[in-house]
Amino acid sequence: MNTPLGNQTLLLYLILSLAQNTVVVERWWQVPLSKEGRPPRLYPRRHQVYKVVEDTKHAPKEKMELILAQTVAKLGGRGDTVFVKKSVGRNNLLAQGLAVYPSPENKEMFAEELRLLHEGRPEERIQTRTGQLTVEILKHMELKVEKRTSIEYDITKEIVCRQILKKRGIFVPPHALRLPEESIKDLGDYWCEVTVNGIDTVRIPMSVVPFEDPTATGRKLLKKQKQEETDAAAVQEAATVSEAATVPEATQGKKAVPPTENQKKDKEPHD
């Protein structure tokens, strides 16, 4: 291909540069059908007016699906399938060997590896990323279990599991929970142990407290507010009484002034 050097450079640049975005347009004025054997009648100005149908620049970007080959903080563990931005996947995960493409071979390999880890001995198992996050949440947890004092019953595993699900949103099956051997009937401080995926066990401090009815709590709060208002009114009344008591004392402290000669003459009777 005989082309000048400048054209070769331009051609090479066009070949290497990729289209980043695509804009779909259509003619505002449709071109009329031409008669058979005749060229179409085009109006240069009218038929060069276009309207935008779709602009992919502002469309939501599709994320890249990858399988992590190593544990990545805040993303997942080895064998987890993640969806990330294409720039992050290409420049960080794939470039550093932290992830691979989800090909059928890779999916089968990691599935087999995960199966062996779950079926192996406990000391050989590896905790998943979700399991690690669950363990961290349980380590900083203090559980409060409400118990009705008017009814005698034991705190069972099912009750504790429901409380954990209610307070933290973590589902704990009863077989993964362990309570003290003695039955829990009275109020006080106890403990419970949760085993995550059969690998890590976390001991959680647990307190059994009396049950409070929400309506009773509302009445108690209203009673407290009324008591505060009564106390404030009593303090205000006491301050007013003390101010009134100080006024006579100030008056008594003043000495009487004797009348002058003119005042005495005015008081004498006139003939």
From TrEMBL:
Large ribosomal subunit protein bL9m C-terminal domain mapped to chain residues: 124-209
Gene3D superfamilies, alphabetized: Ribosomal protein L9, N-terminal domain
Chief localization: mitochondrion
Residue intervals of the Large ribosomal subunit protein bL9m N-terminal domain: 23-55
MF terms (GO), sorted A to Z: structural constituent of ribosome
GO (cellular component) term, any one: ribonucleoprotein complex
Family per record: Belongs to the bacterial ribosomal protein bL9 family.
Protein name: Large ribosomal subunit protein bL9m
Source organism (scientific name): Hucho hucho (huchen)
